[in-house]
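Readers of this paper often ask what the protein records in our data store actually look like. Such a record has a labelled line for the sequence and another for the backbone structure tokens. The tokens are whole numbers drawn from a learned vocabulary of local backbone shapes. We quote a single record here, exactly as it is kept in our systems:
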Amino acid sequence: MARTNFETLRVYQLSEKLADLISEIVLEWNAFARDTVGKQLVKAADSVGANISEGTGRGTYIDNRRFVRIARGSLNETKHETLVAKGVQAKLAGRERNQCGQTHHR
């Protein structure tokens, strides 16, 4: 099958790699992190490439520009959710350390 126009764009290829990497990472998280911030992070990352592809399929420069701007917003959301995920993971790691410390002191 031949590649469509958006698939040849470097920015689309990078967005696809980012979304795949984020999905792989989130799948390794515990259920709480995956079901809260993880799902939103995966959706935001997937949305970057989805909006790039949709914009190129619209056929007009104005529509394409609008969807590229939406993709940029999704990328910013991905960055935000990554920061939130770091905080959640740090809290979970702290809890695990505290629980391990409590079991050793008994």
About this structure: The chain has a mean pLDDT of 91. The helical segments are 10-27, 31-57, 61-104. The chain has three helices and no strands.
